[in-house]
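Hello,

Our lab assistant flagged a job as stuck in the queue for most of the afternoon. It eventually completed. Since we weren't sure the result was trustworthy after the delay, we are filing this so someone can double-check. Below is the sequence as submitted and the structure that was eventually returned. Let us know if re-running is recommended.
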Amino acid sequence: MSGLITRRGLLAGISALGAGAALSACGAKTGGDTSKAAGAKADTSGATVKVGLLNSLSGTMAISEVTVHNALLLAVKEINAAGGVLGKQLKPVSQDGASDWPTFAEKAQALITDSKVVATFGCWTSASRKAVKPVFERNKSLLFYPVQYEGLEQSPYIFYSGATTNQQIVPALDYLKKQGLTKLYLVGSDYVFPRTANKIIKTYAKANGMEVLGEDYAPLGSTEFATIVNKVRSAGADAVFNTLNGDSNVAFFKEYKSARLTAKKLPVLSVSIAEEEVKSIGTQYLEGQLTAWNYYQTTPGAANEKFVAAYQAAYGKDKPTSDPMEAAYISVHLWKAMVEKAGSFDVEKVKAASDGIEFDAPEGKVTVDGATQHVHKTARIGKVTASGLIEEVWNSGGPIKPDPYLKGYDWAADL
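-- returned structure --
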């Protein structure tokens, strides 16, 4: 599995860093006649409509994606309890992407063609999103993608409810710079998000008086980090910028502690470790380390208190909430608001109605930017505590307008 993922991830990374080709090799494997599939229409004729949930319920990414799936189910349950959408109840149809990008493309096509869903919610890695992107575009069906990502992308059939680069990675770099942590070592998983993110980080560093002393990648699912950690330890860096995904983080941070590296000696700032991953990795390996997100379980506000209580009532009092879960949860509510504003489930009408849609989210007020189909979000830096929760140590003071192509940053002009 890891060998397959690495080859697919590398292809995705090359695609994103180049002219933006759409991973046709992955996207083409959809399990059916694509010309016929392109004419598939959502079924809105009955008292219920189907919504697709597309997540890795198995494989290396299940450590993160199962909880996103649960948050999507919670949103559907809440919406149904409040009367549904345009008087119709939502019926969730779940598909397992199995941490494998061609499988994501096949399952996306099945949701559209066989289940005739009105919209789909899911994916985590950028490799999975790149794999399904041509499927949704070809079928003119909507995907709501809930996870922070590397930016440099817009699709007419994807809404991005997680952060883009200027709402997470750039604020994280600004924070490190203000803390005097200007010598960085980059560690990431070997696929599109970390490679593209690190290209952006290196471009930022060059323009902002920072230095990248090393850059290493490991296959998704890798459990061998001794060599990488030894290189990190000897590089002379001030901080590590971590874009590892999935359960590789468990092995990395255990090796980090074995090497007697601590948050005080050499802090790690992670952009894919949230509360659920903290619990899985172990607080003893992460206490004091930094994260960059838009939401934490500890984010103040009545909307978040309600969300946390509802999630824990459904899945257990010991179950934490996290940024990707919250972004998934709000994506269903945002879609509902778009549909009701449009007065229709029709995809083009829903898209036309999206601009300016607001929601009182657990992270704070969010607003849909119809031009980019991204969401205004507040950036937050957090620190892992002994309790396993993450406490905010800095925020941007308000929602940041999405800028997926970093057009507002002179240093990013050549990206």
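-- support follow-up --
The delay was a queue issue, not a problem with the job. The result is valid. Confidence is low (pLDDT under 50) at residues 1-37. The radius of gyration is 20 Å.
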